[in-house]
Design goal:
signal, four-stranded antiparallel beta sheet, about 300 residues, 6 helices, alpha+beta
């Protein structure tokens, strides 16, 4: 059985893609998930996803060298017995280099879960929804909104703060609406609902081990020796209609990642607050044929 410690996808195409992971979202094509009988899947520990997507978080350290973080999104569904409803599971993993330690810096992640219907990639007319990809700047949010979100996050952590200060991020987005985002992102004049996770607490826990991942058939992160930690999992009940499936499987989830120093006198991973907004969705593999019998490509 393949585990993340020995799963090596070393084709030249993948190696070339690694250099540009921050510019695009990677799906099973690039991540090496198995495709059998026209169906793709990816099992990570105790979760099996129909589709996955991965994108890098290009936050530099105090020496202006990329820390090498990434986000992975996996989505699965199962019918609820005796009903016409379906339970959808959207799970988010933080990818980190081997031996990664955030201390004495700290970090937070804010997941905008319910705004996916408002956000589309600008090139979506050129690529069917399952294959559409890009960066937050290339969505209908636009560069001005993205810059405003990052500025709000960095302003919340201007001073050295305790590890539990993810509440600062929550207070900021509960009370301040960026003018540049109104209309392109906001529903009803607010950011909510969203969830915030403390990355210091999450990164202090051991990543998914080889034993936990013994039944895995893919490890959806690049480079392949990077670790994964489950940070967030959202289960929703909905219908099995195409519109609901499209939103649950291929909707865009903006993730705001903030790293900040916390301890004066200690050498922190970052020397001032750093933030990135990542627009993450799953990507359907190109190896699966469309209903018309033609392979859909970007």
């Amino acid at each position: 059985m393949i585990t993340h410690r020995n799963l090596l996808v070393l084709t030249s195409a993948v190696l070339a893609t690694v250099q540009h992971v921050g510019a695009q979202i990677l799906g099973c094509d690039e991540l090496g998930c198995p495709v059998a009988s026209g169906t793709e899947s990816c099992t990570v520990a105790d979760k099996t996803f129909r589709h996955v997507g991965a994108a890098s978080v290009d936050i530099p350290d105090r020496n202006n060298v990329s820390i090498g973080l990434s986000w992975v999104k996996g989505v699965s569904s199962k019918a609820i017995n005796g009903t016409d409803s379906v339970q959808y599971d959207q799970s988010f993993y933080l990818g980190t280099p081997p031996g990664f330690e955030l201390h004495p810096s700290a970090g937070c992640a804010l997941f905008f879960h319910d705004i996916s219907k408002n956000i589309k990639f600008n090139n979506s007319r050129d690529a069917p929804l399952p294959y559409a990809e890009g960066t937050c700047q290339e969505t209908t949010m636009g560069p001005s909104c993205v810059s405003a979100v990052i500025e709000l996050a960095q302003m919340a952590f201007e001073k050295v703060t305790p590890y539990d200060s993810c509440e600062l991020l929550e207070e900021t987005f509960a009370s301040i609406i960026a003018d540049a985002c109104v209309g392109s992102l906001i529903n009803g004049g607010n950011w909510s609902p969203y969830t915030i996770k403390n990355l210091h607490k999450a990164s202090s826990k051991a990543p998914i081990s080889g034993e936990q991942n013994a039944t895995s058939d893919c490890w959806p992160v690049l480079p392949k020796n990077h670790d994964l930690r489950l940070i967030e999992s959202i289960k929703r009940t909905g219908g099995s209609d195409q519109a609901t499936e499209d939103d649950q499987f291929y909707g865009i989830t903006p993730i705001l990642t903030v790293l900040y120093p916390t301890a004066a006198g200690e050498i922190s991973l970052v020397n001032y607050p750093r933030a990135q907004l990542t627009c993450l969705k799953t990507i359907k593999t190109h190896a699966i044929m469309s209903p018309e019998g033609d392979e859909s490509r970007r």
